[in-house]
Amino acid sequence: MTEPLFRLTYDGGDADHHVIDMRLLGASLQGADKIISDGLILLVHSRPPRRGERAPVIAKVREPAPGSYDLIGALQDYAWLLPLGLPVAQQVVGTHISEWLAAVKAYFSGRPDLAEAAMQALVDLNRDHLAARDAAEARMHEERMGYLDAIRQTLAQQQKPLEQFVAPVGRSVTSATFAPAGARSVSVNLEDADAIRASGEVSWTDLQEVQLKTDGFRFHTSGLSIENPERDGYLMAKVSDPRFEQQENAYTAAAQRRAEIVVLARKGYRGDELVKIDIVDFRRELGL
Fold first, then answer.
1. Other residues' Cβ atoms within 10 Å of the Cβ of residue 238
2. Which Pfam families has this protein been placed in (predicted)?
3. Helix boundaries (H) for 227-272
4. Which of 3, 85, 94, 254 fits a 20 to 30 Å CA distance from 195?
5. pLDDT for the residue numbered 248
6. Does residue 163 contact residue 19 with C-beta atoms inside 8 Å?
């Protein structure tokens, strides 16, 4: 096996005796594989994963530490990281995975402030990578905007994988911890797991006209990046309007100008917090 990329540890409960419920472990490993794979594809290709695409990650069970159940993961072929350049990859891959996991956990456990901070850290890593390639300033800005868009779209796809990952927590073990090589670990306890499991429960308003501020460019995505209209931060709004699929459309034009728009949409709330917006029709762009 190649050099470990991360360690995955389950503690407490059954793990105290070096065992874990097989069904829950299987679900957890599937979720972990998906989250890590999507994060690595984001790092290497600066885009969300395509259907069925996965990074060459492998995981092995090893002799556990006392009171835990332990696995290690690695890439089957580090040549897969060549688009980054191996020196850069070796420097940033652990930190990238750590920040990606932190963003995923925070996004689905009701901590949008921490999710935004982790996403900004990912953008900063990408900025340093672009600077190392001596990219022109205008191109760097465009690529950063596209990368942030890709992060938000990929992040929105992690609900099910994260629920799978935390499946054993509270049912067979008391915590699960990702420890990327050379970077800070990310742990999920019972309180986190309950919040994550509840995060899929969203209540929707009726359709209404909503004024939104777009946030930069749209790059190969089924969503539109917008400023959260009810608090600081951003959201990736789902756009169900068929016109959004056209190469040139009112949404993309407005996004390129960071314009304010009025749309017909419904809002999705988790408790009192706005977490989703589904846009069905474009009404007008303000200021035109």
1. 18
2. DUF7946, DUF7947
3. 250-256
4. 94
5. 87
6. no
Between vectors from CA 255 to CA 211 and to CA 148, what angle results, nearest 5°? 110
| 108 touches 159 (CB < 8 A) | yes
Amino acid letter for position 226: I
pLDDT, one tens digit per residue, over 165-199 is: 999 999 999 999 998 888 889 999 999 999 898 87
Exposed, middle or buried: residue 138 (CB in 10 Å: 0-12, 13-18, 19+)?
exposed
For residue range 85-101, what is the model confidence (pLDDT) as tens digits?
A: 555 566 678 889 999 99
| Domain definitions of the chain by residue range | 6-198, 203-285
Name, in order, each residue with C-beta under 8 angstroms of 87's C-beta and a sequence gap of 6 or more.
Answer: none
Q: In what order do the strands lie in the sheet with 68-75?
A: 57-61, 68-75, 6-11, 175-180, 186-189
Residue 228: which of 60, 101, 115 has the closest Cα? 115
